[in-house]
């Protein structure tokens, strides 16, 4: 058995595919996950799995198992999705329910950022004795640290850098990195800036349109993105000071769709570092797997579960 089933569950879609030992994606399928009903989301998940099995011709007993990444907090030991702010699951037993439906397959459940981080770490052939950081900037901001080949989980909430405080003011003393630098934050900042400048609206403002205007040199977008990049750089600076990772990989929708931002982040980060830290800038890179990182990581965890890959520390 040299194939596993990797699944990435998001707020708008569920993706599933067969994953080879070297991380190749086969028979990829997607179904929507837009619903407010917990059981319907699970049924959509099952439909996606069944589509992959049907198209590939593989039977459950021919596969290593199922790896599944979901947003939010999970109980990896019991296979329970504890809390997801963009899905209707609360203490939902995904693992046990899948094992009941597919009794010949083992199930590994983890946070989607952890799955994505493992994929990037594994595909890059990183040394196990090194420290690796994966930072995702998308609808939210989060990170995952791998050290000695294992995911650093702390007491259960490690990696939530989006909750780090930044840019506080008298009017708003509690401002998080996610409040000011995520995709929705970029969109919100741009709308506020355009309103202040009394700019005429000819299209709906989105993160994508703001970044397009930024690269075209539009004044409002440059102002917004200068603030955003400064806050992102401060967050990365904190990670460097705390952990000094051998590699820092940036992913998530904002970066994956605009990989050139890495150069802008490096330029903003460099002046924040002391001379002895300056080499850290060259250890920053963008995701190689982009939108498939969570899917691939979920599948690769099955291939590596027997040799200690991504055990917690």
Describe the structure.
This protein has 313 residues and is of the alpha/beta class. It has 2 domains: 3-110, Nucleotidyltransferase, domain 5 (2-Layer Sandwich); 119-286, 2-Layer Sandwich (Nucleotidyltransferase, domain 5). It contains 10 helices and 13 strands. The chain has helices at 38-56, 94-101, 112-123, 177-181, 183-196, 207-215, 219-243, 253-256, 261-269, 293-304; strands at residues 3-9, 13-20, 25-32, 65-70, 73-75, 80-83, 90-92, 106-111, 131-137, 141-147, 150-151, 247-251, 284-286. The strands form 3 sheets. It has a 5-stranded mixed β-sheet with strand order 3-2-1-4-8. A 5-stranded mixed β-sheet has the order 11-10-9-12-13. It has a 3-stranded antiparallel β-sheet with strand order 5-6-7. A hairpin with a 4-residue loop joins strand 2 and strand 3. The longest helix has 25 residues, at 219-243. The protein is globular. The two termini are 29 Å apart. The model has no long low-confidence stretch (mean pLDDT 94).
């Amino acid at each position: 058995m040299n194939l596993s089933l990797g699944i990435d569950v998001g707020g708008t879609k569920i993706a599933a595919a067969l994953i080879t030992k070297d991380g190749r994606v086969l028979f990829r399928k997607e179904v929507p996950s837009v619903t407010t009903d917990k059981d319907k989301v699970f049924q959509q998940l099952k439909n996606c799995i069944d589509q992959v099995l049907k198209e590939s011709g593989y039977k459950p007993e021919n596969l290593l198992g199922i790896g599944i990444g979901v947003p939010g907090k999970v109980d990896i030991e019991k296979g329970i999705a504890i809390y997801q702010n963009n899905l209707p699951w609360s203490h939902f037993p995904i693992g046990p329910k899948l094992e009941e439906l597919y009794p010949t397959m083992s199930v590994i459940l983890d946070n989607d950022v952890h799955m994505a981080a493992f994929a990037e770490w594994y595909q890059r052939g990183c040394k196990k004795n090194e420290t690796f950081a994966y930072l995702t900037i998308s609808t939210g901001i989060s990170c995952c640290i791998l050290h000695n080949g294992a995911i650093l989980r702390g007491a259960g909430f490690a990696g939530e850098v989006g909750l780090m405080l930044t840019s506080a003011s008298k009017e708003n003393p509690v401002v998080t990195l996610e409040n000011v630098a995520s995709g929705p934050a970029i969109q919100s900042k741009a709308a506020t800036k355009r309103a202040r400048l009394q700019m005429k609206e000819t299209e709906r403002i989105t993160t994508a349109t703001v970044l397009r205007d930024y690269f075209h040199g539009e004044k409002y977008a440059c102002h917004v993105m200068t603030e955003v990049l400064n806050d992102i750089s401060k967050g990365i600076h904190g990670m460097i000071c705390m952990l000094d990772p051998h590699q820092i990989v940036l992913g998530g929708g904002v970066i994956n769709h605009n990989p050139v931002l890495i150069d802008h982040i490096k330029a903003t980060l460099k002046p924040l570092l002391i001379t002895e830290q300056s080499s850290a800038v060259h250890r920053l890179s963008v995701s190689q797997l982009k939108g498939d990182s969570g899917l691939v990581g979920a599948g690769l965890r099955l291939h590596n579960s027997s040799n200690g890959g991504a055990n917690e520390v």
